[in-house]
Every structure is written in C-alpha cells, then in structure tokens.
TrEMBL record, chain A:
Name the record gives this protein: Formate hydrogenlyase subunit 4
Superkingdom as given in the UniProt entry: Bacteria
Annotated transmembrane regions: 6-29, 71-98, 104-125, 146-169, 181-201, 243-261, 267-288, 300-317
GO cellular component: plasma membrane
Keyword Transferase among UniProt keywords: no
PROSITE patterns the UniProt entry points to: COMPLEX1_ND1_2 (PS00668)
Topology with respect to the bilayer: Multi-pass membrane protein
Gene name in the database record: hycD
GO MF term set: lyase activity
Keywords carried by this UniProt record: Lyase, Membrane, Transmembrane, Transmembrane helix
InterPro entries (alphabetical): ComplexI_Subunit1, NADH_UbQ_OxRdtase_su1/FPO, NADH_UbQ_OxRdtase_su1_CS
One Pfam family it belongs to: NADHdh
Location in the cell: Membrane
Length: 318, 643
C-alpha cells in the first residue's frame, strides 16, 4: 500500500503526470492572459499541449559538430530533475516526501539542474549562438540566485526563530509557522522577500523581460538554436513545469498554512493560488515590458530584489 | 586505547626508501621500468599499511603510537620523536596515499614523453613520504622537517619541465613564498619550544592549554600565517596558480588536491589541539572571515582565467575557503553546530581531494592529447575524447555542488552549520560562490569540451587506458561520496571528528592515563555527532525518485509516440548528422565563441572589482611577499588584541 501510494505520488500527483499537465495549462493560461491584456484573442488554453504534440512528431535534427549523446540526454535530465522537485514542495497539508527527503537548500540546488541542463545541451550543440546564450543564461542565473538565496534564508530565519528558536531550512516548519501566525505575505517582515520572489519567478522561468538567454530576435533562442522536434519539446515542457514549481514554491513560502479541513478543497485552492501567482508575476510583467539587456538584468537583480530580500533578512532577526 | 604498531613508520619510510633506491639505480637508464615499479609499489605499500590501521583506529577508536628508536618519554617528558596516529591523522593519510597511488599509476603514461624520469620518481616519492610523515607524526619539529621536504620536492616538481620558461618562473615564486611560509612555521615552532622545552605535540598542548603568554600568541600568529601559505589562504594564495599551472598534471593534482589538505591538517592541529580554541568566539570569527575572503577571491579570480589549470588552481583556493569556514564554525561554543561544521569540513576535504584530482587529471589528459591548456585555443574535444568529457562533467558538477554529486552534501552541511551558528552573510556568500563555481566550470566545459573543434585538433585521440582508469576511480569516488553520505559519515567522518575534539585521549595515549586531566583540571566535553543532525537530504532516495520518474516518462513517451506514429510520421530513426550549425551566414571556422568571450554581462558590471583583482595579482614576487608579511602582521595584531 505504501509503495502504491508512493508510486501514485511519483507518477500521477503531484509527480510526472500532474506537473506536466498543470505546467502546460499554466503556460496556456499565461499566453491567453497576455493576449487578452494586449487586446488579442490569443491561442486556446490547450495550445501548449498541441505545440508539444506537434514538436514530438517532427524530425529530430542533430548538427554535425554536436556532441550527440550529451545533446540528447541534457534535456531529459533537466525535465526529470525539475519534476522530482514537485515531490519536495508540500501542497496544503500534504507532505509528499518533503519531510524526509529535501529542504529548501536542496530545492534551490535542484532548481539549478534544469538551467545547467540547458547550458550543457546548448554547449553540446556547438553553435556560436548557443555559446552566447549559455553565457547569458549563466549570468542570469548568477543574478537571480543572489536574491533567491537571501529570500529563502530570510523566510527560514523568521519561521525557525519563532517556532524552534533557531533558523530552519524545512518547508514543513515554515508552513507550521504560517498556520500559527498567518500567511507570510501578510507579515510585514517577510513582505519584501515575497515581492523580491515575484521578481525572481520570471527570471527563473525565463520569460520577458529576463529572457536574454533565449532572445529569439537577437540570438535565435540561444542554447535552443539547434534543437528541434522532440528535444525542443522537452525543453518547452521543462519551462512549463518550472513555472508550476516556482508558483508552488511561492505559495508554500508565503501563502502556506491555509486549511479548509478538506484535502480536495485545499489542493484546489492551492492550484488557484499558483495560477494567480504566475499571472501576477509572469503574465502582467510580460505583457507590459520589453526585454532588457544582460548587464541590466544583473544590475537589476543585484539591486532592487536583493535589497528587498536583505531588508527581510534583517527584519527576521529583529 | 593505546595501540602500539609499526605500521605508521612503514607507511612513512617506504616511499623514502623507494626514493633513495631510485636515486641509487638512476645511472642505468635501462632500469626505467624498475623505477616506475618502485614508485607504484612504494605508494601501494604506504596505502596498504594505512588501510591495515583503519580497523583499530577508525572503527575501534584506538590511537596508534610509535616512538622512534624506542625513546619512550621519561618522567612525563617526551624526549624522542613519537608518531601518533589518531583517526583524523589517518583520515588525512588515507586521502594522501590513495590519491598518490593513483597519481603514480597515472604518471607512468602521462610522463612517458619527458626525460629525467628518475629524478621525477625520486621527487614524487619524497613528496609522498613527507606528506604521510607530516600527518602521522606527533612531534612539532618533525612536522616542520616533513613540511620542508614536502615544499622542496614540490618546488622541484613544479619546475620539472624546465625547458618552459613559465615553469622556472613558477618554481621561483614558489620557492620564495613557500620558504617564507616554512620560515614562519619554524619561527613559531622555535618560540613554542622556548616556552615549553618540549616538541611533543601532546605535551605542548597539555602545557599551554588555556595558558597564553605573549610569546605563544606570537607563535600562534606566525604558525597560522605559515600554514596559511601551505593551504593557500588569501592573501598567501599567490603561488598555487603558477605552480599548479606549470607542474605536470600528475603532480599538480597532488599539490592542489592533497598537499593543500596538509595545510588544513596543520591548521586544525594548531587550533583544536596545540592552542585549544574551541569555544573562543573571537578566534571563530577570525577563521570564518579568513575563509570567506579566500572563498570570494578564489572564485572571482577563477572566473576571469583563460588557462585550464590556472583556473583550477584558483578554484582550489576558493574550495579551501569552504573547508576553512567549516572548521571555523567547528570552533563554535554551541557544540552541536560546531560538530556539524567540523563534519562538513572533513567531508569537503575528502570531496575536494576526489574532484580536484579528477579535474587536474582531465586537464592533464587534455594537455597530453592536444599539447595545450589554453582554453582559447581548445574546443569541441567531446567528439574526440568522450570518456574524458564525461569524467570532466562529473567532476564539474561535483565541485559546483549539484545534487546528487558529492560536493552538494558537504557544501550543504557547511551552509547549515554557518547559518545555524548565526553567520547568515557567510551562508549567502557561500551559496553565491557556489554558483560562481558552476559558472567557471561551465566556461571550461564550453570552451574545452564543447563548442567548435579547431582544425588543428582534428587528429586528437582519447588518452590511453591506464590514464582513463585512474580517472574513472576518482569519478566513482565522487559518485559514491555523493550518494551514500551516511556510510561515509559513519565510518570516516565521525571517528575523525571525534578524534579532533578528543584532546584528552590524544594526550593520555602519549603519556599515562589521567595525565591530561591532571594538567587541565577539568574535562573537555566531547559532543555527540551523527550525520542525522544535518537534516533532510537523502541522495539515494532522490536518485530512486529520479529513476522512477525517468522510467515513467520513457514509458509515457513510448505510448504517446506510438499514438503519433499512426499518422505516419517517423520520429525515431532520424539521427542523421548531415547538418551544420546555424551561424547566421558566417563561415563556421570564424564563428566559435569561447574562453574570454563568455560572461561579458558579469564582467561589464563588475569591471572595477575584477580590474582591481587583476591589477593586484601583478605577478611580482615582491608584492606577494609583502602580502604574506602583512597578513602575519594583521594576524599578530588581531590575536594580541583579542587573546
């Protein structure tokens, strides 16, 4: 029974099937919202599904100079690792494997694997555009990682000091803290961190204005320039799942601890919140601003979100 | 708890005997295979004799002693030289002998093209013997002697390829800065001897326990600076980039991966034993700040390098910073956090040895195959050297701490320890430096192994089997250490950490039972330690999850592709590689982007900082010596102010 339950978690909810489907729906909602905000009709919400299916049916081209095995394996590893993260982030009151398998630092690090997979895959393609792309991807990662770690540490400090007297890295403790003291978003000490996190989400997911690494108009999608067919589809899928992961991470860090006493209701509410977070942080921003340059990305993340996060960290200790 | 054994002395003396044997037969060039044999066999004997010691020392917690010439202590005064092997010494010794044994096998093929191999193997064995002697001895002056042999063997090996100008320059820098470090250590030893009239470490630590006089404080400052040079802490980190770059890779892996550990060993012995400073917040702060500085400067310098081995050398500097920070937290008065720090530091020691040796071996393989380590001239080697590429990627992921590789576990323990000890800025810096590490490793991957293959390198071949096997062993070590932290922790780290804190036993074993208690008047508490306190990260479980999802995904894709196939679209057999990359109209050979072109966004924003660092590392030995001297001065002032 335990094994069956674990398998259900791993393969269906919130693992493989759910995270892929929900990620794709999220990205569909995002596209629809952006279109509506720009007074277009936009694609149907199911459009990402059709895109992936279409890509899966296309021919796979591998350039002559590419390192073939790395080129093929990199997208797969990125996707699978990002799906494993979904098991470490609790839904309201449901802890899949989070209690024993991973804490926030682990999640932070697992989140770097898809980016690294993108970099390695791009590098393996041997294209000069991919070289520029991976260099930008790396610098983007350096930019958003600074506020991200401070945010996580600030929330951990706030929750841990209140609950057990010492800092914590456990998402469970953070959720318990929110059960007792109300959601973190409404908390003055962690509000700056929440705002900073909203800035981090688009960069982590790789959407406008922080999609310098994949700038289609300048460097032809950077690391993805040589990818086609099924493997390109996997990258798109990874991006979609990452959207779900980041949304869910925001919900459990800043909006956790809400309980209706009914599991299904809780899960549905959580899903609703994830959609809301993604619409606010990705779609709104995406529809009104243009892409910024790479050194502007770095400058932006090392100033505003970092300062916000540091304020939170300081407030957590007072 | 005492365990008298002659195995330690066998482990030390075999390499020395081997070195002299090679020296004796060196006139006959026909005996070269015999010399190689002697080198391998001597290092194997050292390794095996230390392996025999694991059962009594690591598992049963005994401490092995051996008095040279049977000069036992008289009336509780040590007269002769005593070897004393506790778990920590054995732990470091195992790292040393294991890496050296593999390096000796690697050398056989790697050094085939060089001449004067008799001198190479002599120096190699001297280096090995002195490193083992350094960690197994219980005598302060003997430590200095071993350090001196080690330094001079290393200098000669650095300048071994003396037809290259760079090697001589590196050797010169090393000889100046290295001797300065040794001199500082000697001065410290002399001052301590003048105070205590003994050179036995156990006795010294009993005598000057919590009993600082101005002379001992000065000695502490000198010795810290000296070991700082050996473990290349900023600002004494200026010799390794040159030395590691120009030494043959089989030696630079030892210099960087293993010899730096002897510096750390010295540091730990100094701080945890001779000058017992556990619980001293000021000392803790100093060490943590020093380590953090080392971490930042090493990583920032590494990111702007354009030479494979030079980059690796700076990355070593940065990783040593992590270890020092961890041991700094180990001094914390809150024992549970302190132990977490110590465990993390020990773990990072063994991890650093495995991935840094592997990285230098990969650099050596690239040098062996192509004749250069300049990353602006390399590229696209993954097609020619697939095996080396995989091993390089494993090492690169390990050093940048991607789960589930080994670097992650140790770094994660260090983050937890620093954060729980209340050093949040240090945790943040450590986390960000880790991303920097990833950045420069990706730069190497892109510029050396991926990207476009230059025309010159089209004839390149994969390295011979003996080299790749030794590299594979290290890669395996990286994976095992990453996936089974519980086992590593239980059998290696916990005994070593226990022995670091168990000062009483160390002293009692050398003398009589109860000696330490009489000297200290109160017992030093030894904290409990397990990996469990580190928290929640079970790499093996994550790995299982990963595999299950992968299988599920492949099955799902298989089913859906079948569904797609009904529409007569063939997706599976189109792996043809007839297409060139898209270059926007440029000719392919003019298009590659690698090396210095990467990370423009970062360098543009921080050009002041990087410019300052580049200017500071001027390459002038006089400046570097000034840095070491000022470091000593700052340390002395700080220590006099706080102690």
């Amino acid at each position: 029974m335990e094994t069956l339950k674990s398998l259900f978690y791993i393969l269906i909810f919130p693992g493989l099937l759910f995270s892929i489907c929900f990620g794709l729906i999220l990205s569909g909602i995002d596209r629809k919202m952006v279109a509506r905000m720009q007074r277009r009709i936009g694609p149907p919400i199911m459009q990402p599904f059709y895109d992936i299916l279409k890509l899966a049916g296309k021919e796979n081209l591998i350039p002559r100079v590419a390192a073939k095995k790395t080129f093929i394996l990199a997208p797969l590893i990125g996707l699978i690792s990002v799906i494993t993260i979904s098991l470490f982030i609790p839904f309201y009151g449901i802890y899949f494997f989070s209690g024993q398998f991973g804490d926030i630092i682990v999640i932070l690090y697992l989140l770097t694997i898809p980016a690294v997979a993108l970099i390695i895959g791009g590098a393996a393609s041997g294209s000069p555009y991919a070289s520029i792309g991976i260099s930008r991807e790396m610098v983007t990662m350096l930019s958003y990682e600074v506020p991200l770690v401070i945010i996580v540490l600030a929330v951990g400090a706030k929750a841990g000091i209140a609950i057990s007297g010492n800092v914590t890295f456990s998402l469970k403790v953070i959720e318990d803290y929110q059960k007792l003291y109300g959601v973190n978003l409404a908390n003055l000490a962690t509000l700056p961190a929440a705002l900073a996190f909203l800035f981090v989400i688009p960069a982590e997911v790789g959407t406008v204005p922080f999609d310098v690494a994949e700038a289609e108009t300048e460097i032809c999608e950077g690391p993805l320039v040589e990818y086609s067919g099924f493997y390109l589809g996997i990258y798109k899928l990874t991006q979609a799942v990452k959207m779900f992961i980041m949304g869910n991470l925001f919900v459990s860090l800043f909006l956790g601890g809400i309980n209706f006493g009914n599991t299904i209701l809780n899960v549905l509410f959580n899903i609703l919140l994830i959609i809301l977070v993604i619409v606010v942080s990705v779609s709104f921003v995406r529809s009104v601003v243009g892409r910024i340059r790479i050194e502007q990305t770095l400058k932006f993340f090392w100033t505003i979100p970092t300062v916000l996060a540091v304020i939170s960290l300081i407030l957590a200790y007072i | 708890m005492n365990y008298v054994s002659s195995l330690p002395i066998i482990a030390i003396i075999t390499p020395f005997i081997g070195a002299f044997l090679i020296g004796a037969i060196s006139s006959n060039k026909k005996l070269l295979p015999a010399m190689k044999g002697i080198a391998i066999v001597s290092s194997l004997v050292s390794l095996v004799s230390l392996l025999f010691l694991t059962k009594p020392i690591l598992l049963e917690g005994k401490v092995a002693t051996y008095w040279l010439g049977n000069w036992m202590p008289q009336e509780q005064m040590a007269i002769g030289i005593g070897l004393e092997v506790d778990s920590f010494g054995l732990f470091t010794g195992l790292i040393i002998t294991f890496s050296s044994f593999l390096s000796s096998i690697y050398s056989v093929t790697y050094m085939k093209e060089d001449n004067a191999l008799d001198k190479y193997y002599t120096l190699f064995l001297l280096l090995l013997g002195s490193m083992i002697g350094f960690v197994l001895t219980g005598d302060l002056f003997n430590m200095y002697v071993m350090l001196e042999i080690m330094t001079f063997a290393a200098i000669s090996l650095t300048a071994f390829r003396n037809n290259i100008y760079k090697s001589l320059e590196a050797g010169f820098k090393y000889i100046v800065i290295g001797s300065l470090g040794s001199t500082l250590i000697l001065l410290g030893t002399v001052l301590i001897y003048a105070q205590t009239a003994t050179l036995n470490m156990a006795q010294i630590s009993a005598l000057i326990h919590n009993n600082y006089t101005p002379v001992t404080i000065l000695a502490l400052a000198f010795m810290m600076a000296g070991y700082g040079v050996k473990a290349f802490l900023v600002p004494c980190h200026t010799w390794p980039p040159d030395a590691h770059m120009s030494a043959p890779s089989s030696v630079s892996m030892l210099l960087s991966g293993v010899m730096s550990k002897t510096g750390i060993y010295g540091f730990v012995r100094l701080l945890y034993m001779i000058f017992f400073s556990v619980g001293m917040a000021k000392m803790e702060l100093l060490i943590i700040l020093w380590g953090t500085l080392t971490m930042i400067v090493g990583a920032s310098m590494a990111i702007i390098q354009t030479d494979f081995k030079r980059l690796l050398a700076f990355s070593s500097v940065s990783q040593i910073g992590y270890i020092i920070v961890a041991f700094g937290v180990g001094l914390s008065s809150k024992s549970s956090i302190g132990v977490l720090g110590t465990l993390g530091g020990l773990y990072h020691m063994i991890n650093h040895a495995s991935f840094k040796c592997l990285l230098f071996m990969c650099a050596g393989a690239v040098l062996h195959a192509t004749g250069t380590t300049d990353i602006t001239k390399l590229g696209g080697l993954s097609k020619k050297m697939p095996y080396t590429t995989i091993l390089f990627l494993i090492a690169a992921f390990s050093i940048s701490g991607l789960p589930p590789f080994n670097g992650f576990v140790s770094k994660w323990m260090i983050y937890q320890a620093t954060y729980e000890a209340g050093y949040a800025p240090v945790t943040i810096i450590a986390l960000i430096v880790s991303v920097f590490t990833l950045a420069y490793m990706m730069k190497l991957a892109q510029s050396v192994f991926f990207g476009e293959l230059p025309k010159k390198l089209e004839e390149v071949k994969e390295v011979p089997l003996t080299m790749s096997i030794t590299m594979g062993v290290f890669a395996l070590a990286c994976l095992v250490e990453g996936l089974f932290p519980k086992i590593i922790s239980k059998y290696l780290l916990e005994p070593a950490a226990y022995s670091i804190y168990n000062l009483h036993n160390y002293i009692d074993v050398m003398f009589t039972k109860g000696f330490a208690e009489k000297m200290f008047k109160n017992k030093i508490p030894i904290p409990n330690m397990t990996y469990e306190m580190a928290g929640y990260w079970r790499p093996e479980a994550w790995f299982v999850l990963f595999i299950v999802i992968l299988i599920g995904f492949i099955i799902g894709v298989g089913i859906s592709l079948n569904f797609v196939k009904k529409n007569n679209i063939d997706t599976t057999c189109n792996f043809g590689d007839k297409y060139g990359v898209f270059t926007g109209g440029e000719k392919e050979e003019f298009a590659p982007i690698a090396g210095g072109d990467l990370f423009w966004g970062l360098r543009h924003n921080l050009k002041g900082y990087f410019g300052f660092l580049e200017k500071a590392h001027s390459g002038v030995v006089n400046d570097y010596v000034t840095w070491v001297i000022s470091c000593t001065a700052v340390l002395s002032i700080y220590l006099f102010a706080v102690l």
